[in-house]
Design a protein that fits this description.
With 229 residues, the chain is of the alpha/beta class. The protein has a single domain, classed as 3-Layer(aba) Sandwich (Rossmann fold), CATH 3.40.50.720. It contains six helices and eight strands. Strands 3-2-1-4-5-6-7-8 form an eight-stranded mixed β-sheet, sandwiched between helices. Helix 3 runs parallel beside helix 5. The mean pLDDT is 96. Bound molecules: NADP nicotinamide-adenine-dinucleotide phosphate.
């Protein structure tokens, strides 16, 4: 049976992706900061794993727990992310400190988790790494006008960094299919449920990337196909 670890699976897109994959018969390790409070749908093989992506010790403990539970991992989904409190601050007024929490979660988190889980992942079948990014991280889209919808430094630049990190993983990890996904603007806690897509629509690209064993590696996709970096 295929196994996937999803970070930030306590709610929103991560929980819905876990639910959809488990419904298809996957064993899903659901990374959560508070695993005891995870609501697991009946009849699904969703196993809560304590995992704070900003904490080395938590990630190391999660590796051991996953290894003991399933031995190998087929897919790692770096989904945990935050918008940050700086969203109302103009670039000119943003301090380095305003970026710290968002970068800790959205940039250092995926690197910490990927580095720690790569050995387990490489023992999986057709190993895949899925990075949950955003069109706000697209330099091309932001330059073309999207910046007017979100003229703030932390979140877009964190996702742009994640995109570059993902390109470099794709270029250098010959045995892993790396896919970067943009869920689209989906009603979750991240945007105070203002997003216009449903959770089902928002997880289409994530589920497609998880279940695609062939690649090619190094693409940036939304639910309709390839999008610009
Ligand atoms: N919703 C959208 O419109 C949209 C669009 C583009 C991209 N995205 C991306 O999609 C991903 C999921 O976001 P969402 O919309 O589902 O938001 P959400 O409902 O706020 O969920 C975010 C998840 O990340 C977890 N998380 C936050 N910090 C964490 C940490 N340090 N360690 C582990 N988990 C942590 C949260 O866990 P807790 O419950 O413990 O806080 C929660 O499970 C994010 O990467 C986001 O940037 C979302």
């Amino acid at each position: 049976m295929s196994t996937a670890l999803i970070t930030g699976a306590s709610r929103g897109l991560g929980l819905e992706a876990a639910r959809r994959l488990a419904e298809q018969g996957w064993t899903v390790l659901a990374g959560c900061r508070e695993p005891a409070s995870l609501a697991i749908p009946d009849g699904t093989d969703i196993r809560p794993i304590a995992l704070d992506v900003t904490d080395d010790a938590s990630v190391a403990a999660a590796v051991k727990e996953v290894q003991d539970a399933v031995e190998t991992l087929d897919v790692l989904v770096n989904n945990a992310g935050i918008a940050g409190a700086e969203r109302e601050i103009a670039p000119a007024d943003t301090t380095a400190e305003d970026l710290r929490a968002v970068y800790e979660t959205n940039v250092l988190g995926p690197v910490r988790v990927t580095h720690a889980f790569l050995p387990l992942l490489r023992r999986g079948t057709h190993p895949r790494l899925v990075m949950v990014s955003s069109s706000l991280g697209s330099l091309q889209d932001m330059n073309a006008g999207r910046w007017e919808r979100y003229p703030h430094l932390a979140y877009p630049s964190s996702k742009a960094a994640l995109n570059m990190i993902s390109v470099l993983y794709a270029k250098t990890l010959a045995d892993v299919v790396v896919t970067v996904v943009n869920p689209g603007w989906t009603a979750t806690n991240l945007n105070a449920f203002q997003g216009t897509q449903t959770l089902a629509e928002g997880t289409d690209a994530i589920v497609a990337a998880v279940t695609d064993t062939t690649g090619p590696s190094g693409r940036f996709l939304d639910r309709d196909g390839e999008i610009p970096w």
